Amino acid sequence: MAEMNAGGSGLKANLEMTLREWIERYQREIVFDQVHYRGVQTWKNVLDLWVLQEILWETAVDTVIEIGVRHGGTTLWLADMLRTFRADDALVIAIDLEPPAIQLPPEVRFINGDSIAPTTVEKARGLAAGRKALVIADGNHAAGHVLQEMRLYGPLVAEGSYFIAEDGIVDVMEWKEFTPGPTVAAHQFVAENDAFIMDRSREKFLLTYAPDGFLKRVRAAL
Ligand SMILES: C[S@@+](CC[C@H](N)C(=O)[O-])C[C@H]1O[C@@H](n2cnc3c(N)ncnc32)[C@H](O)[C@@H]1O
Questions:
Q1: What is the DSSP letter of 131?
Q2: Running along the chain, 222 residues long, what does each successive block of 10 average in pLDDT?
Q3: Domain range spanning residue 161?
Q4: Residue 4: inside a domain, yes or no?
Q5: What's the number of domains the chain is made of?
Q6: Residue with CA at minimum distance from ligand 1 atom 25
Q7: 5 in any annotated domain
Q8: Looking at the domain assignment, is residue 98 inside a domain?
Q9: Which of 197, 135, 191 is nearest to 163 (CA)?
Q10: CATH number, domain with residue 107
């Protein structure tokens, strides 16, 4: 793998790097401790955040259900984006097995629990009732678990909005300890549910951690 040139131009020294090498480097050296939003760790491919804000704007959703919070950088970012776009209507329903260490802003309602537990789903459903929601699944990435999340939270996704399955990158990169992962769930979900399509236009930057993971709801009826 091409090594970063610490001294001179990092770009010039790394122009021959392949996409595979770039992804491996991002995963190994960047994503877990070198990406921050308002000083808080944010476990995202930053190109995906740009696509996400385009989706939030275009779909005009007022609610994001984020499964998997971890440090909370993305949660903060989502709250700020939605507040900017939707003012007082903004709501982030954040779900995790453990609360983050940071103080969450008032737009965020945190649900402490397993994403697929009936009590968690009931709480999320209650908070999202009557609202226009998008779901981001970034918790347990095992295919079977993600498929259950798609079936449980898919009905909460507004028509025209998305269920985004994060980290299908594990399947594409064949990181065996994490496969089968989200892309396997996504293919099964769209095969069994024609209210959703796989919207590859959202992979326009190529370097996405959610390949096959932008599932758009194109019909109200499930
Ligand atoms: C990849 S991290 C989330 C990163 C975060 N979305 C971000 O962008 O910075 C995964 C998180 O999912 C949580 N998690 C794992 N399994 C879960 C489950 N079954 N239900 C809810 N949360 C879960 C973990 O506790 C962990 O905090």
A1: S
A2: 57 95 96 97 98 98 98 98 95 98 97 98 98 98 98 98 98 97 98 97 97 97 82
A3: 40-217
A4: no
A5: 1
A6: 97
A7: no
A8: yes
A9: 135
A10: 3.40.50.150
CB-count exposure of residue 136 (10 Å: 0-12, 13-18, 19+): buried
What's the CA-to-centroid distance between 179 and ligand 1, angstroms? 17
Taking alpha carbons only, the member of 168, 110, 122 closest to residue 142 is: 168
Sequence-ordered list of residues with C-beta below 8 angstroms from that of 150, at least 6 positions apart, any chain:
137, 163, 165, 185, 186, 189, 193, 215
Residue 113 CA to ligand 1 center (angstroms) comes to 11
Tell me if 166 sits within 8 A of 173, measured CB to CB. no
Can you give the pLDDT at residue 140? 98
Distance of CA 43 to the CA centre of its chain: 10
Q: Which of 41, 140, 147, 169 to mutate to test the pocket of ligand 1 (most atoms within 8 A of CB)?
A: 140
Which tokens in the block code for residue 111?
A: 């649900």
Q: In this structure, are residues 108 and 94 in contact, taking their beta carbons and an 8 Å threshold?
A: yes
Is 8 inside a domain boundary? no
Specify the pLDDT at position 2: 47
Residue 44's identity, in one-letter code, is K
Looking from the CA of 26 toward its CB, the CA atoms found within 13 Å total: 18
How far is Cα 150 from Cα 187, in angstroms, rounded to an integer? Answer: 11
CA of 204 to the centre of ligand 1 (A): 26
